[in-house]
């Protein structure tokens, strides 16, 4: 199964749009084929993304290799409803994606 990137074409958040563009740009430049899945067009895709990420409040973009969850690039925006215990997890996701790019281990991050 191909790499799938769950994204939204409808968002008021510039940070979400930047993260999505970053993922698309990196995958395209590395010639890694991927299937974009627009969660704003189908609520069942949003439910699938959240279930696969193991987080009922997960926001796009989220990256999967087939059914295997790889992570995201959620840039931390402090929302009052995000518990402190989740902040560490979010920061790990950001660091893992960016580190994989820098260390030229994107394929490992994507579990290819």
From TrEMBL:
GO cellular component terms attached to this protein's record: cytoplasm
Alphabetical list of InterPro entries matching this protein: Glut_rich_SH3-bd (IPR006993), SH3BGR (IPR051033), Thioredoxin-like_sf (IPR036249)
UniProt feature coiled coil, ranges: none
Family: Belongs to the SH3BGR family.
Protein name: Uncharacterized protein
Organism listed in the record: Amphilophus citrinellus
